[in-house]
Amino acid sequence: MANRGRALTLFGKVAIVTGASRNIGKSVAVALARSGADIGFVYRANTQTADETAREIRTLGRRVVYAQVDVMDWKASHAFVERVAKELGRVDILVSNAGNPSSVRAPLAEQDPEEMDLQFRTHVMGALHF
Prior knowledge:
By secondary structure, this protein is an alpha/beta fold. The protein has helices at residues 23-34, 47-59, 74-88, 113-129; strands at residues 14-18, 38-43, 64-68, 93-95.
């Protein structure tokens, strides 16, 4: 345990966080920025909260690249990763946080197939696209 008692430093690292305009994703992106990482993040819908997240990251002295990207869109996801690598120089960390909350609380055998497909494409394929 060589790092015992020392704060984690991520200076020189670049992190991509999906679903980072609010809630858990925003908290993760800001925490990574506080630790020294530059941040690339995507969001689904709320440009205002995304702008606020980016502003908070910049006030920490970190660089940020962000865009509205559907994580289920393979081409858009890959294009964003390439953009981050080009603008920030590399990608070291991926936090696949984007999610699609389900209102379905039924047992798996009773799940609606369309809802299950949406959840799978968002949570599994979305992570793989990045």
